[in-house]
Specification:
The structure holds 2 protein chains of 2 kinds. By secondary structure, chain A is an alpha/beta fold. Chain A folds into 2 domains: 134 residues, Periplasmic binding protein-like II (D-Maltodextrin-Binding Protein, domain 2, 3-Layer(aba) Sandwich); 109 residues, 3-Layer(aba) Sandwich (D-Maltodextrin-Binding Protein, domain 2), CATH 3.40.190.10. Helices cover 35% and strands 26% of the residues of chain A. In chain A, the strands form 2 sheets. An 8-stranded mixed β-sheet of chain A has the order 5-1-6-11-7-10-8-9, with helices on both faces. Chain A has a 3-stranded antiparallel β-sheet with strand order 2-3-4. In chain A, helix 3 packs across helix 9. The longest helix of chain A is centred in the N-terminal third of the chain and has 17 residues. By secondary structure, chain B is mainly alpha-helical. Chain B is 75% helix and 0% strand. In chain B, helix 7 crosses helix 9 and helix 12 runs antiparallel to helix 13. Chain B is globular and about 80 Å long. The two termini of chain B are 41 Å apart. Classes of the chains: A alpha/beta, B mainly alpha. Chains A and B meet through helix 1, strand 2 and helix 7 of A and helix 8 and helix 12 of B.
């Protein structure tokens, strides 16, 4: 009986050792060989990325992804794993890049590379239309909702580190009484729309996302100036510097010839591609 | 009190009326749409007036009266008609509950530039994926469950250990974590699975573990006399299992397995975290387009429900097939 276990564990060990450890340096080769650039994106984050009324993925992030693929001369394919799966790294070659409005924080940089910052988004507080809150000062001690584990959550916890080049400095302007976190910040809007103070007094999210919700009929209003501007970057898996360099070059070119600014104006009405 | 009630049906009716009226009054329905229905009875009180205790009490009494009267009328109907009527009433209540949210449910049937309605997309993309992922997963889970059950009944120590380890681990950890472990964890070892196979694997492994216990109980539930009688007829042991024990075990296995499948239809929504567009995910994606998530979640709930009802019927048919030995 003992022998069976020894044999079994030896076989298991051999299986683990024999499998290739990681797919390294092959991303660019794979993209070029299959003529397909696979990008991960969130299908529930308008106007950055969503399913349009033609049942196709659309939005600012999707347009940026399409443009990158076009300049590589390949087709774009989109997959939609959850945010945690994307930021967890070790994509195993199932997708090549994330154009998902991701803030390049130090924690994330441990498992992902950030070859190109492509725009800066303002983070803003929203309250219910009926709310008496009029300024950021009034928000102190209130119950504020945001996405869990994201930069907004980190800001409310005064634990936000953005280590991207040229990230604008910011102050912690709000002392939240209670922080409620959700899978994604739009779920916080759902709780806020129930009524002023029903579950939340305010929500903290990207200004463009709040504005899209207001256009979608949510009874919200934006309070005060943006709390901070965060740089948002294309992300890639570790291990292929040639692919990263290619992404950097393409995004730089898109900035230089005005393509990126045009896409920003198309989706946000303003140019968010330069530091404010 | 029960004896009293049995002696005099009016006592039980009155008790029900008093309790229902008290509960409904305590709910304070005076200011709701239901309350406004009764407001003309109180004369000058308009819908915009702040409802007081009197109005809550009036609404409570009226609704409790309606409830008791309703039960009294139904009592005189034949059983099938009773069932149909109560189902219809409960469905109507559910419909009223959904309508009271005051959302724009027309969006579910709206047709976009793609030329198909949102409902069509929800069914062809979402419900279809949910169905085929669940069907493949339950098929694999049945095989795993049978192996697991045989392992747990085995006298071979290694087989028994592997089976109990498998059952213990997959019953003892959340399905959500199993999905992530299989999708991301295995990828780090170089064994890269796409989203759909990873999701099916996780569902099959998890449900196989639960169903192994169902299969084991089913096999053990066959009276030992059956096995002994077959042995006395000198049947080979594999034939005894296949032809004598297993068909009789199936009668005990089918109902809880049908239950598991219906649970899996809903649990398959967990595989959406790796990017599978099953019904819940598709509903959320469609809802986020125009920030009308709630409408689509209601639509998804109804579709899940309809699918479950269909499988309840199928389960009843299979039960009938394996139960035919027991009908006289």
């Amino acid at each position: 009986m003992k022998n069976i276990f020894v044999l079994g564990s030896a076989a298991a060990l051999a299986f683990v050792m024999a499998t290739p450890v990681a797919i390294a340096g092959e991303t660019l080769d794979r993209v070029m060989a299959t003529k397909t650039l696979t990008m991960s994106s969130d299908a529930e984050y308008p106007p950055q990325s969503f399913l349009n009324d033609n049942n196709e993925m659309d939005g600012f992030d999707v347009d940026v992804g399409k443009e990158i693929a076009k300049r590589m001369g390949v087709e774009l394919k989109i997959v939609t794993p959850s945010w945690d799966i994307i930021t967890g790294g070790s994509w195993g070659g199932r997708w090549d890049m994330s154009v998902g409005s991701m803030t390049p924080t130090k924690q994330r940089a441990k498992v992902l590379n950030f070859p190109a910052v492509y725009y800066y988004t303002p983070a803003a507080f929203a309250v219910h239309q009926d709310s008496k809150i009029a300024s950021l000062d009034d928000l102190s001690g209130k119950t504020i909702g945001s996405c869990g584990g994201c930069t907004y959550d980190a800001y409310l916890n005064k634990d936000l580190v953005i280590d991207a080049e040229g990230a604008p400095a910011f102050d912690y302007l709000v002392e939240a009484g209670e922080i409620k976190t959700y899978e994604t910040d739009t779920h916080a809007f759902d709780d806020l729309r129930l009524g002023d103070g029903t579950r939340l007094d305010a929500a903290f999210s990207a200004l463009p996302t709040i504005q899209a919700a207001i256009e979608g009929g949510y009874p919200l209003k934006v309070i005060g100036k943006p709390a901070f501007y965060e740089p948002l970057s294309v992300a890639t898996d570790k291990g292929d510097p040639a692919f990263d360099a290619k992404i950097t070059a393409i995004v730089d070119a898109m900035k230089a010839d005005g393509t990126l600014q045009k896409l920003s104006e198309k989706w946000y009405g303003v140019d968010l591609t330069a530091v404010q | 009190m029960l004896d009293l009630a049995r002696g005099n049906p009016w006592v039980s009716r009155a008790t029900l009326f008093v309790f229902a009226a008290a509960a409904l009054t305590a709910m304070g329905l005076g200011g709701t749409a239901v309350g406004n229905l009764f407001s003309p009875l109180l004369g000058a009180v308009g819908p915009e007036a702040t409802p007081g205790l009197g109005r809550h009490l009036l609404v409570g009494l009226m609704l409790a009266g309606a409830l008791v009267a309703n039960l009294e009328i139904i009592r005189f109907l034949p059983f099938r008609l009773q069932v149909l009527l109560v189902w219809a009433e409960l469905l109507l209540l559910f419909y009223g509950f959904v309508l009271s949210f005051d959302r724009d449910f027309g969006v579910i049937f709206a047709v976009g530039r793609s030329g198909v309605s949102n409902l069509y997309f929800l069914i062809t993309t979402g419900a279809f994926t949910t169905l085929y992922v669940s069907l493949i997963a339950i098929a694999i889970a049945c095989v795993l469950a049978l192996i697991g059950a045989l392992g747990k009944l085995s006298r071979n120590g290694a087989f028994y250990a592997v089976a109990t380890f498998y059952i213990s681990f997959f019953r003892g950890t959340p399905l959500l974590l199993q999905v992530v472990l299989i999708y991301t964890g295995f990828a780090q070892l170089g064994f890269v699975m796409e989203a759909v196979p990873a999701g099916i694997t996780a569902l099959a492994l998890c449900y196989g573990a639960y169903m192994a216990e169902i299969f084991r109980a089913g096999i053990e539930g066959v009276p030992s006399g059956q096995r002994e009688a077959a042995k006395a007829l000198a049947l080979p042991s594999d034939l005894i299992f296949r032809k004598i024990v297993f068909p009789q075990a199936m009668r005990l296995i089918v109902p809880p397995t049908g239950n598991q499948f219906i649970a899996m239809l809903k649990d398959s929504s967990l595989v959406s975290i790796v990017g599978v567009w099953e019904l819940t995910k598709t509903a959320q994606v469609l809802g986020k387009r125009d920030f009308q998530v709630f409408e689509f979640l209601i639509a998804a709930a109804v579709i899940y429900w309809v699918m479950s009802v269909v499988f309840e019927v199928i389960q009843a048919r299979i039960e009938g097939y394996y139960g035919k030995g027991n009908t006289r």
